[in-house]
Design goal:
Layout (H helix, E strand, L loop, with lengths): L1 H28 L12 E5 L6 H16 L3 E5 L5 H14 L3 E4 L8 H9 L3 E5 L11 E5 L1 H15 L3 E7 L4 H14 L5 E8 L4 H14 L5 E4 L2 H13 L7 E6 L2 H8 L5 E4 L2 H16 L7 E4 L2 E4 L13
Parallel strand pairs: 1-2, 1-3, 3-4, 4-5, 5-11, 6-7, 6-8, 8-9, 9-10
Antiparallel strand pairs: 10-12
Helix pairs in contact: 1-8, 2-10, 5-6, 7-8
């Protein structure tokens, strides 16, 4: 039964990735998507990838406000390619955008293109994950990513007095770095918890799953896994399930995606930290129009996160995002 449940979830995610892969091709070919043209403002958006439902929800909240205002949205998908993201941002600058909404693929590599945007008088609103040079940004809106890792780490040490731990990371993003660091700080005083492997997975199921299989086949001993996000967590769970090890390894993540909550409910994951993409999107939409109206906005806005376990998972709605 567990096997069927896991693979139904994996299939649904892979189908999602295929659909949004096709959308990505469309986004590359078309100038803009979905919103009424001819409005007074042009808003550009570049999330790190559109094969993650999290970003679609953020974008939907922003899009609804833009549509209500009669303005135009340009949406591009860099598909985790920083060079493509830079090229697409330049294209949007050339089209005359007034605001850039951005989730950086690589938090250290966008300074030059953001400098170009600022020289053109473009407002920059960053969502979900920071850029390194925050002087370039008018407003950054993220989950409290450090706390997301920290609350999972604190829960982890209440459950585990000793462990051989594997970390699945996305080191090119500040959000991924912060979540891992929060977790590590929470377990720092636990001498019997050993990190035996750190694996780069870009937060993607299709990378995490084969890398988990490789680790299992390598013979490295481990009994717990913390992933920077739930796409990676689902990939890890699928790999463990395929190898018959799911009952022996605890898996923890961040997001509280519907798929991860379903796995937690079934006892196939231990815990996740809930992000609230709708709140992030609504806050971004509000700040966009405050900036366009000449108002002062907060430089950094943190959306609180919450611990989700089998004890409270039903409170978060297994079938939907928060």
């Amino acid at each position: 039964m567990k096997n069927n449940k896991v693979w139904m979830i994996v299939f649904s995610i892979v189908l999602w990735i295929v659909v949004f892969g096709c959308l990505s091709v469309i986004l590359k070919k078309n100038q803009f998507v979905g919103q009424a043209s001819g409005g007074k403002h042009l808003i550009g958006a570049s999330y790190m990838t559109m094969n993650n439902e999290f970003y679609e929800i953020v974008s939907e909240e922003i899009s609804q406000r833009i549509e209500a205002e009669g303005d135009t949205l340009i949406l591009r998908d860099p598909a985790l390619d920083v060079d493509r993201q830079i090229t697409q941002i330049q294209e949007m600058i050339d089209m005359g955008i007034d605001v850039l909404v951005l989730t950086p693929v690589d938090w250290e590599s966008l300074t030059d293109i953001l400098t170009t945007a600022k020289e053109k008088g473009i407002y920059i609103v960053v969502v979900d994950s920071n850029v390194k040079d925050e002087d370039m940004v008018d407003c950054t809106i993220t989950s409290d990513n450090y706390d997301a890792g920290k609350i999972i780490g604190e829960y982890f040490i209440r459950q585990q007095k000793e462990a051989k731990l594997v970390l699945f990371e996305h080191t090119k993003t500040k959000s991924g770095q912060d979540r891992i660091q929060g977790f590590l700080d929470a377990i720092a005083d636990c001498d019997n918890i050993e990190v035996v492997e750190r694996i780069e997975c870009a937060g993607q199921l299709e990378i995490a799953m084969p890398k988990m299989k490789e680790l299992i086949e390598s013979g490295v001993g481990f009994d717990q896994v913390f992933c920077l996000n739930d796409l990676a967590s689902v990939g890890v769970v699928a790999a463990l399930d395929e190898k018959g090890l799911l009952d022996q390894v605890g898996v923890y993540g961040v997001d509280a995606s519907p798929d991860a909550k379903a796995l937690i409910k079934e006892g196939m994951m231990r815990a996740t930290a809930a992000q609230f993409p709708s709140k992030i999107g609504k806050a971004a939409a509000e700040k966009i129009y405050m900036l366009l109206d000449g108002e002062t906005v907060e430089k950094n806005i943190y959306i609180p996160v919450e611990l989700v376990t089998q004890d409270n998972v039903d409170d978060y709605g297994v079938e939907r995002w928060q």
